[in-house]
Amino acid sequence: MSAGYTRFAALSLMLFASLSVSMGNAQAADAVPGEQWCDRPVDDIRFVGNKVTRAQVIERELMQKPGQYCSLDDIIDGMQNIMDLGLFKSIRAELDLAEGQLILSYLVVEKIFFLPLPRISRTSDGELRLGAQLRWDNFMGRLHQLKLTSEKRQEDDGRGRAGYVHSLEYNVPRFFGSRYGMSVDASVERRNAELSRDDEIYGETLRKSRRASLRLTRWANDSLGISGLSYFGGAGFEIRDYQMRSGVKGPFSDGENLALEAGFGIQRVHQEPYRRRGHYYGGSLAFADKVLGADFRYVRLEAEGRWYLALQKPQTNFNIRARLRWSDSAPFGERSYQIGGGELLRGMESGAHSGNILTLLNVEYLSGFFAYPAWRWLVFMDAGNVYLQSDVDLFRQHVRGGVGLRRKVEALTNADLRLDLAWDPVEGKVKPYLSTSLTF
């Protein structure tokens, strides 16, 4: 191990550790106070502490229903389902006998859902972003997710190509009293870019893009919660224009793309205070054709599995993600998939390779610090590759590895600090990745 690597790793760890450390106490209790009264039907269920979250969001996750005979297993399963929403720092359940009535109360402590803030951030691949973002993870208390972003983005830590992106994301996991959900995305992009493929540079361009997509989801399970099997269908539309600054477009082209998609997901991921357990499986089919009004024609098949394997030690687990993606072509003269970067294959330059078939495997072993459970260290391995149609060799994979740290931000929804250090054997150096979201 080189002296440069040792100094860099030490400085990175010191910087990460300089953040304030607070010990978490959000845990779902194993015992229910008043459980001695659980020998009769539950007459009423009440919620305490949900200042923003509507009662219906919590109620539809419960296994124990009013009028049903009291079951401690159902009460505790309901607590886990509520924790899986990601909205609360802590959850407790209590049973109380008042005037002959058995009352079940769920006491919750909410996280911070609404974040209107100036945005100064750096992606794990070194892109600086400056602007503003409004993020509301529990919009109107209904578990809807709203995100509005307007920002300038510049590559290479602020020294490379720049552009502007404005976007809207709105997601409804499930409407109250319904089997259906919905998501809407729209964005406008204006960015300077290099047109290149297979180490050949064609030119510099100003890329203008307008996108919109709509997806409708139907839950297959009879319960009203947001776990289990769901399937979806939708459509996406994009208009793209290249204004050349220098050189030529090469294989790239302007145009309009309209694609239809359908797929399914099986969500069985459970949240613990500092780790996850369970699994997710999903797959989708998308296609575009000129009969739909698109300028391009292609078919895509994609499958993904994620496993969160909780080990015996607290805060210790294996996380595994596997992806397989295939496409016969792609719009705008591009290739469907790229590999490399902090979100896919750490230790390789972002977009280092492109193709129409992708294989990917990410494995992480995480373990916590006993005195500071919000912190966890990890070792990881990433393996993957992209292929054209005629050169598929599943034994030919790019493999990288490294170490990292995770810090759970308990007060916020969907917020984890992430530092990864990956070795790049091509450049012979360590690549750092710092982000505010987990890898997967």
Automatic annotation (TrEMBL):
Pfam families: Omp85 (PF01103), POTRA (PF07244). The keyword Endoplasmic reticulum does not apply. Keywords: Membrane, Signal. Residues 138-404 form the Bacterial surface antigen (D15) domain. Its main location: membrane. It is found in: Membrane. Residues 42-111 form the POTRA domain. The keyword Membrane applies. GO terms for cellular component: outer membrane. InterPro entries: Bac_surfAg_D15 (IPR000184), BamA/TamA_POTRA (IPR010827). It comes from the Bacteria. Residues 1-28 form the signal peptide. This is Outer membrane protein assembly factor BamA. The gene is bamA_3.
